[in-house]
């Protein structure tokens, strides 16, 4: 059995996640402790949205603390006494979903990462190399990693092997053209955006839109693994996802 000394405190969990995701580069409103906790954390719940559903699940799961991606709609007093809440918003989006995400690159079989794309001074994506594989193979790989795709657009030459891909947390005309200009022939993102489709047609780049929810759930699973690696005595449980 784990002792109280083995169990982290909420502030330590928030600080560790912040360090992993480079949260010090973001405003304090994007990460930290939302509700102070007053107990050692032996059982940590992870949920994307702080709402009444997450609060009810936290009760049923008997967690000591809760990590949230979006904490702002959590009803006041909805959690048991002493159960605290920490959160990570934009750092999670940028580093554990379709952004500059080495763990995702490994899952997709990609290496030699380069930061790519900016939004309000934040890096929101990466370029990466992969052994020459067909676009169809990578389509299947992405679907396996994320549990499905929202949309797929074939490139101008569907039979040409993909050697360089872009993974980006946004899809704009400029970003698509920049990715293609830097040699990417596959653009992986969360949501397909209509204003960027002219650039897709003009460049001939293939597109995998994995779905915003799927990308976030992948990131939550990755975060759970990182926390379990850090604290052997910490039980990490994830709120079951709603169906897409």
UniProtKB/TrEMBL annotation:
Record protein name field: Uncharacterized protein
Recorded GO CC terms: cytoplasm
InterPro entries: DUF34/NIF3, DUF34/NIF3_sf
PANTHER family to which the protein is assigned, alphabetical: GTP CYCLOHYDROLASE 1 TYPE 2 HOMOLOG, NGG1 INTERACTING FACTOR 3
GO MF term (any one): metal ion binding
Annotated a divalent metal cation binding sites: 93, 212, 216
Recorded superkingdom: Bacteria
Record organism: uncultured Gemmatimonadaceae bacterium
Family: Belongs to the GTP cyclohydrolase I type 2/NIF3 family.
Keyword annotations: Metal-binding
């Amino acid at each position: 059995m784990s002792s109280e000394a083995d169990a982290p405190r909420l502030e330590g969990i928030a600080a560790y996640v912040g360090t992993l995701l480079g949260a010090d580069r973001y405003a304090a409103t994007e990460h930290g402790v939302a509700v102070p906790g007053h107990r050692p954390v032996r059982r940590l719940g992870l949920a994307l949205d702080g709402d009444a559903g997450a609060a009810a699940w936290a009760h049923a799961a008997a967690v000591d603390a809760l990590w949230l991606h979006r904490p702002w709609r959590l009803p006041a007093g909805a959690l048991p006494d002493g159960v605290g809440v920490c959160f990570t918003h934009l750092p999670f989006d940028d580093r554990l979903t379709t952004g500059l995400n080495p763990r995702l690159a490994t899952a997709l079989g990609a290496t030699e990462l380069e930061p790519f794309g900016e939004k309000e001074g934040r890096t929101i994506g990466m370029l990466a190399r992969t052994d020459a594989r067909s676009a169809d193979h990578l389509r299947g790989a992405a679907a396996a990693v994320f549990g499905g795709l929202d949309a797929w657009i074939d490139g101008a030459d569907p039979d040409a092997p993909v050697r360089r891909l872009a993974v980006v947390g946004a899809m704009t005309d400029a970003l698509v053209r920049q990715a293609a200009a830097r040699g990417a022939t596959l653009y992986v993102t969360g949501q397909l955006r209509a204003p960027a489709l002219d650039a897709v047609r003009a460049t001939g780049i293939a597109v995998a839109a994995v779905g915003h929810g799927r990308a976030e759930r992948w990131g939550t699973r990755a975060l759970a693994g990182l926390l379990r690696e850090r604290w052997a005595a910490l039980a990490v449980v994830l709120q079951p996802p709603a169906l897409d």
